Structure formats: C-alpha cells, structure tokens
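Re: folding output
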Amino acid sequence: MALIMVTGTYPPTKQKDLNKIYVAENKPAYPASVKKAHNWVAQVTNGLYKVYAVYKCPDDKVLEALAGLTKRYNFYAQVDGYKFSIELLAEAEEAIRMMAE
C-alpha cells in the first residue's frame, strides 16, 4: 500500500474562499483507488495556514492516484495564494532496509 502526502498552505484571509471551494459540488473526485487516511491542520506558520492530508492507494495505482490528487488540488489552487505539494512516502523502517541493501 502506497502513502501519498499533500501539504497545502494558504493565507488566513482566504479561509472563506477556500471553504466555498471545499464544499463545491463540481470539484474533481478522488480516484476510486484512493482513500484518505489522515487530515491535519497545523498552526499558522510564516503567516500561512498549513494543512496535511495523507492518502492510501494500492502500489500499482500510484500514478493514477498522483494524477487524480493533482487534479483535485489544482481545483483548490484557484484560491489566490493556495499552494500545495505532493510527496510519495515510505515507512521509515522500510526505507532504512532499502538503503542498507
């Protein structure tokens, strides 16, 4: 199972705009193989709200998941000042084993 983390930031002054986008019915759907595992909000950092979301998908669906998540978060990026990054994660123990080989 692959883990994908999306980190988003936006100015506090854009919270109402982002709320409207978040509840919009026309936003792109998640791919069927993608399941949200976690969603967090952090304190304001450098004058921006910061949010994290972690998604799970089967290993053989990673490219489909990345494309679908990019499409969905680009929808949120129509709010001025909203930025996001997407990262593929690995369990620390697994990554250490792979680097030791």
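--- second protein (sequence, then structure) ---
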Amino acid sequence: MHRTTTLSALLLVVFVVTVAILLQVLPGPRKSTDYLVIGAVATLLCLLLLYFLLIKRDQKP
C-alpha cells in the first residue's frame, strides 16, 4: 500500500509540474485547445513514467 501511495503522489506532482511548465511556455492568450494539449501532454508523460517505473520494479530480483 505504501508503494502505491508513493507512486500516486509522485505522478500527481509530475502532472502538476508539467502543467505549470507548459502554462509558462505556451504563449497567451490561450484557447481551450491549448489547455487540451497541455492536459494531454501531462497525461502522456505521467503514463509513460508509470509504465517505466512499473516495468523497472518488476525486473528487480
């Protein structure tokens, strides 16, 4: 249970940081599609990190 909570917290932090960075990088004024892209990129990054961490954890002896 502790690993699941830690992993969830890590992914939440990565998501928030990614969104914050992309909000600073993308020029304004923003349209609704810009927010869609920001959310999609942050979600994709979190999913890739999740899969990477789960595969790496399963490979340890």
